[in-house]
Amino acid sequence: MSAEQLAEVSDLFVVAAILLYLFSMIAFAAELAFGRVRADAPAVPARRPVAVGAGAGEAPDEPAEAPAVGVEPPSWAAKAGLTGLVLGWVGWAANLGAILTRGLAVERWPWGNMYEFVVAICFAAVTAFLVTQLRYNVRFLGAFVMIAAAVGLGAAARLLYTSAGPVVPALDSYWVAIHVSAAILASGLFVVAATSGGLYLVRGDGPSRLPSRADLERVAHRAIVIAFPLWTFAVITGALWADKAWGRYWGWDPKEVWSFITWVAYAAYLHARATGGWRGRPATIIQLVAFACLMFNLIGVNVFLSGLHSYADM
Fold it and tell me: Is the pLDDT confidence value at 62 over 70?
């Protein structure tokens, strides 16, 4: 196949991924809307009353399980969740196909402009969700991660699209595979963490179809614990690349500044949890502020500010 044909195939893969992510989102949303209603676990487990009199000498019973809340969900709700998972994997494969065929078309690492970068971040976010689902039951995140990926791909295709072709010499470097790949992986995990954090804030204290706030916070924290070293690595390798490309490690370029601000914000979140004992809403707000910094670094810097990174085609 020619480079033009490969580029067209890549574009078709993007469209397919958008549709599959949307269908997956609908299936996950159906499970979330009609699934089991859950209540937060009580702080102190309830115990069955100890018998008095004839049974007074017997050992106390084991703690009783919390009473079930709500009614048994319809069987099709669980099937809808599994369908969403299957569609998510197929959409993930289409997203991967878009990246691979784009790379073959341009004969370089396929994240040399904003269009390619956003397509890769959507892939990383869905990957983080699906891989996490292999170990933990986090299907409750599916509807939100899938709609974010679909909207991201749609925006990339509609607003950021750049025809397949070569990049400026500064981006034609092996550092793309090192620096940008780490930033993409970290950003995907940060998306999952922000999704879980947002759900934490909207979840009430009563019965809900969402997991407990403790579980939501745990998912967000684990994602950030993995993503933060990757982002740190991306910042460091970015400085090394800057020295090779421009002869200095740091030049107060807007992208460099906001990458560092993002790093400081996520470091503050981890520091507050580790040393200050911050939990719950305050810690969640910090990590969402950090995510807002990440999004401004990704979009706002390219739209509103100019610098040495502006060559990455908006």
Answer: no
